[in-house]
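User: Can you model how dinuclear copper ion sits in this protein?
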Amino acid sequence: MHMHKFEKIWLTFGIGCLVVFLSVVGVSAFYLGNKPASCLTTINSEKVDQTKPFDKPGLHKAEGKEWDYELVFVASTFSYNPAQVKVPLGAKVKVIATTKDVIHGFEMAGTNINMMLEPGYVSEYTTTFDKAGEYLVVCNEYCGTGHHLMSAKIEVVK
Ligand code: CUA
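Assistant: Here's the modeled complex, given as structure tokens:
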């Protein structure tokens, strides 16, 4: 079979890229231990209110952890609990959220916090709130007629 020189170069390049990409993903997953953000923590979505830490939504001081506070959110059509919360400036906070019914979003406008909340799963994100101000949390997954009304407020205060 005769192949044009450029075709061979292009094929080598393509296969080379594939090898590089798969190696990067492989090293990241198996050697560095990177996992999807939620790490697939599961929860019974019908018993969210009785399940720790979702039985007490809001901000809690964390003891002996790598983060200072845990900020627990429960989403349901069409609201977040808590609807409003204050966080001390500079605190390292683990945001822990889930939903009681359908898929909701959890996007903190103006930050890189953007999680999908799926029934039966727990979504987590650890971050440091180092800019004071009011942050709007919005739902960015269409969840029904009240979707556009679904929001919460996080105040980062000194
Ligand atoms: Cu909740 Cu859209």
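A couple of observations from the model: The first helix runs from residue 5 to 31. The first strand starts at residue 41 and ends at 42.
User: Helpful, thanks.
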